[in-house]
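Input structure tokens:
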């Protein structure tokens, strides 16, 4: 049976950073809904054009569009063993859709690490965040700087600041999270899947806690 790990937590808490590390260590593919949308924006697809209108405002892309995109992605052969889902589901309707999809794929959500941090830390982290153009690797001016200014440590590509990491949009993204995504905390707690992880610790310590949560 395929194993799916859903990473839950507010924007800026470190889901993307940790998903990349966990993917390397577990061999499960990392699927980031935000990266998939950004890829579509880069390629100027119809999906990308639509998604961009929501993303620049810090709003969620509509459920039907997002669910269809993830469904398509999960059909790729690299998801046969499962995947680490980063940024999906983000609403109860998406969580229900995921359950239904996984029935089809003979998969199940194994564990849902819920990474937490105080709101002021999230704002500070997001406004100092730099992202790699080629593969979405994440750096932070203050907490996790790149070795050579402006260049990704992993693939040498250019680092840029995401439009939606601007202060006003960050605030909206956090409100949207509290309003639309935080109901998933009780959803997965009720399903006995939730494991809380303190995201204010070092990157290495958060990884250790995550690996422990996955082992148990
Ligand atoms: P992220 O890279 O996860 O911070 O996502 C960036 C933006 O993409 C979000 O602010 C949303 O506009 C959009 N997005 C990503 N994942 C989803 C999702 N599961 N549902 C709706 N919109 C999403």
């Amino acid at each position: 049976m395929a194993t799916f790990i859903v990473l839950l937590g507010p924007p800026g808490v470190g889901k993307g950073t940790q998903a990349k590390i966990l993917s390397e260590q577990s061999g499960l593919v990392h699927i980031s809904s935000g990266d998939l949308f950004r890829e579509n924006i880069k390629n100027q697809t119809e999906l990308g054009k639509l998604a961009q209108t929501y993303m620049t405002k810090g709003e969620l892309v509509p459920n039907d569009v997002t669910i269809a995109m993830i469904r398509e992605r999960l059909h790729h052969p690299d998801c046969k063993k499962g995947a680490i889902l980063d940024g999906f589901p983000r609403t109860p309707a998406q969580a229900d859709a995921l359950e239904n999809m996984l029935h089809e794929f003979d998969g199940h959500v194994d564990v849902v690490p819920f990474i937490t941090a105080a709101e002021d830390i999230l704002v500070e982290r997001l406004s100092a965040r730099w992202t790699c153009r080629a593969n979405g690797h994440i750096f932070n001016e203050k907490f996790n700087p790149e070795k050579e200014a402006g260049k990704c440590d992993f693939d040498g590509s250019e680092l840029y600041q995401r439009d939606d990491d601007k202060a006003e949009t960050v605030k909206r993204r956090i409100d949207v999270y509290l309003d639309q995504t935080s109901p998933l905390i009780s959803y997965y707690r009720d399903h006995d899947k939730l494991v809380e992880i303190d995201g204010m610790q070092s990157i290495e310590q958060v990884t250790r806690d995550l690996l422990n949560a996955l082992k148990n």
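Residues 11, 33-34, 37, 54-55, 58-61, 66, 87-88, 90, 94, 164, 173 surround adenosine monophosphate (CB under 6 Å). DSSP finds nine helices and eight strands in the chain.
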